[in-house]
Amino acid sequence: MPDIKHFDPDAALEEALLLFWQRGSAATGVQDIVQATGVNRSSLYATFGDKQALFQAALTRYVDERSTPVFGRLGAEGSSLGAIRAFFDGLIEARCEGPYAQWGCMVSNTYAAPEQSDPKVREVLERHHATLVGNLRAALEAAADQGQLRADVDPRAAAEHLALLAYGINIRSRHGASTEDLRAAVTAALAGIAS
């Protein structure tokens, strides 16, 4: 007879994701997850594995459901510097306002945490980075085709630069940087590559 779960694994994973995102894995104990989800420790382990496996599942969910859809809009046909500006405007708004203000980005937070050394976690981080850079590059190449970039701008290098700016915004917003300062940094970065 199959094991019947008496809880919603999807809802439990979302609760764990929120805890890991806000606090980080090191500061989130299994008992915190038990308390937040209402699911006992043995059921969590039976469903997700140990805490590290649960963290990896939460990080994967974060990338798939929160990051990737936003990145997709960057690489959409007809992208331009305006699409990149809109991406950064949305990023700053998400990091500085609303229910997740000053939480930063779960990915950026993980890069600075001990969990980043886990090969499975690194794989998720690298996939996230490749998707971000790839979509930024696509938007920059479209902008170049539209005559919006300086002729000497390398879209590959500029995409890496803008990805680093996004990570910096995530980290700085976690520590209370103002929206004005973050927007000014974006304006300066885009002014440096615009024709």
Describe the protein's architecture and organization.
Keywords: DNA-binding, Transcription, Transcription regulation. Pfam families: TetR_C_13 (PF16925), TetR_N (PF00440). Residues 6-66 form the HTH tetR-type domain. GO terms for molecular function: DNA binding. 70% of the residues lie in helices and 0% in strands. It is an all-alpha fold. It has a domain at 59-191: Tetracycline Repressor, domain 2. Helix 5 (81-96) runs parallel beside helix 8 (155-174), helix 5 (81-96) runs antiparallel to helix 9 and helix 7 (119-145) crosses helix 8. The longest helix has 27 residues, at 119-145.
Name a few traits of the molecule.
195 residues; mainly alpha; Tetracycline Repressor, domain 2; 9 helices; elongated
What secondary-structure arrangement, pairings included, does this model have?
Elements: H1 9-23, H2 30-37, H3 41-48, H4 51-74, H5 81-96, H6 106-111, H7 119-145, H8 155-174, H9 179-191
Pfam family, one: TetR_N
Keywords: DNA-binding, Transcription, Transcription regulation
GO molecular function, one term: DNA binding
Rg from Cα: 19 Å
Low-pLDDT windows of residues: none
Counting DSSP H or I runs of 4 or more residues, the number of helices is 9
CATH architectural type of the domain at 59-191: Orthogonal Bundle
Going by CATH, what is the homologous superfamily of the domain at 59-191?
A: Tetracycline Repressor, domain 2
Beta strand count: 0
End-to-end distance: 67 Å
Query: What order do the SSEs take from the amino end to the carboxyl end, as H and E?
Result: HHHHHHHHH
Mean pLDDT: 94
